Amino acid sequence: MSKHVARTFIAAMRKFPSLPLRSSAFVCGSLAFAFALNAQAGVTVTDAWVRGTVPAQHSTGAFATITSTEDAKLVGASTPVAKEVQVHLSETKGGMMHMHAVESIALPAGKPVKLQPGGYHVMLIQLTGQIKAGQKVPLTFVVEDAKGKRSNVEVEATVRPLGQ
Fold this sequence. Notes:
Strand content: over 45%
Radius of gyration: 21 Å
Number of helices: 2
CATH topology of the largest domain: Immunoglobulin-like
CATH superfamily of the largest domain: PCu(A)C copper chaperone
CATH architecture of the largest domain: Sandwich
């Protein structure tokens, strides 16, 4: 899209070379804004899913594959189906599986990071109701780039049956 915008700008400048300086500055500023928006779109989330629950269950996990075009980190998430959302890690220590919250998950440039059972994942805590297989759950992933700027990536996660 940004190449198209640049070509359109160049064509307009050739067609109307007498544009006042102010108009040219406005167009240049608009182009810079369009390029900046395009640069922020460097994080993709694919294969997002949530584990289904039974009635009265209070928590579940959310999983996905996250890829960033530049070094970044996942620092949080949110969803309307849970009152609290935490980034977690499950790991085996001394033959026992332990799960705990982590501050962030590194997203190395160009390398897909899988949030999966038994590893990094997102915990949905204090659910507002049962989450049934086949439903769609809106999830917002909060990503921080190397400069500390945060952005949100919104997805619709499919609910898989309990036991998957």
